[in-house]
Amino acid sequence: MRILLAEDNPVTLTMVRQELERLGHEVTPVSNGEQAFQRASSHPVDLLVTDIQMPGWNGFKCIEALAVTSPLLPVVVLSSLEPEDVRRQLPEGHRVIAILSKEEGLDALGKAVANAEIQDRQARRRHARIVCTIGPASHNRDVIGRMLLAGMDVARLNFSHGTHEDHSRVLAELRAAEETWDKPLAVLQDLCGPKIRVGSMQDGIVLERGSDLVIQAEPIVGNARRFSTIAPEILPDLRLHDPVMLDDGLLELEVIREGSQEVHCRVIHGGPLRSGKGMNLPASRLGLPGVTDKDLKDLAWGVANQVDFVAISFVRQAEDVLRVKRYLAEHGSTAQVIAKIEKPEAVEAIDSIIEAADGIMIARGDMGVELSASRVPWIQRDILKRCERADKPVITATQMLESMTVNSRPTRAEVTDVTVAIREGSDAVMLSGETATGIDPVLVVSTMAGIIRESESHSGLIEGLEADAPESWQRGLLAAVNQAGTTVTIALDRYGRHLPSLSKKIRTHPLVLVTDRIEVARRSTLYHGVIPVILTEGGGYVSILGRTLDELRRRSVVATGDLVAVLELQPEHPFPYRQEGSVVFIRA
Prior knowledge:
six-stranded mixed β-sheet, M1 Pyruvate Kinase, Domain 3, TIM Barrel, 21% strand, 588 residues, 26 strands
């Protein structure tokens, strides 16, 4: 049996370890709860034997975390506390099978271990990232903390809903959970953009196929013959025979008479229509601004609250991205800009948009309405390949585990969808309603993390394209790293400037970013396979490297004898590197 032993007393640890090894078990010792959690989350473990009173994370905090990430892992508590005191403080969902006092001796421990039911647990470190939308089902600190443990890397705040006060409260909960679990968490602000919606409607309205109706500029409470839109400025842009898609394409109209104040339409595909449903105009060239007045007000909130990423909805051209970048720069924000690809114009201008943006989101919901749904998988694949060549991270989004909004298991089609996204090179996958309004956001995140791990284990992790490295020194460096059998690569890169390229090219093992800046560590959580290490104190090269390796050992990322590549990329304080662009191989 593979036993993880968490005990901070060296004498007790040695005694217990020797007894368990005498009984034929394979024992891995750690000295506190966080080390135990990190090890159990990334390596195969059959049983945890843990003390309670330890420095840093105590046994209770470790058991609470493992109840989320490894709910089937049996735990034996070995403590000097009274068993009843331990039992009262155990978190919900724990898998503690025995609580033993240290005075009971090793015989009792041997019996408890012998009675443990071994689960088939092949823990693997996950490389692709998970973006989670925060909403009514997930906006409290406890749920956010458990989502963070289950695998959330980036929290998405959807500014199509909620007030600035609502988002400020959620942000405070996100930062509190980040501090509690000592795990950097990026915040992505998703701007509403020029979303066109139906105005207010009477209850129970159904549009009948073949019937005629009017869309008007003046606001009214609509019915089956006439309704308004929240964006009346689009009406002059509609042309004869243009399709008008309502409610994510479930309903379809055709323009039969143009007008600046009223547009007459015929119902091609009918159905129920409620207030506020979306309106898509795939064939119309609209004069709406790419960034609205509401977006600018929301951006001001994002700057003030130091969000890490800003996603722009309904991007049509590179200038939409550049406008937001200029605003952020003028207001002193270091947030990176993600362009959401969902409009036909964006697909046509994809290369210039990729060049302008810091990253891309493939927003397949509106894309599937504006374009033929059968084209979406091929557009997805094409964008992923273009972004791989351009060293830009990609988030694949929309309905990835949609059925888990109301069910406890995903469909086989959804599992296949996530697997394809990972195999084709997505840096991250996104959950929307599943975590915002679903019945069990934590289970959804855990399920997504499991699908990713399984996908990565079978695909062998997509290889990078070393030949596309932009500089000659980088090509040689990456070739050396990928061909040397490296366990982990450490990048000494204070500002994370080389992350986009390195995370695309190093896909066979973890990439460790060493920085002294929390905002850089947070942003790194969107990049494939990156593990941030924050060193807040300076020191010499040897000191920095030694402390980094100590931290990686603590997290069970490296072990004695592992081959580690160290990339010296930025000769700036506080990291006194010897030569930019060099690589050093060492044994841990």
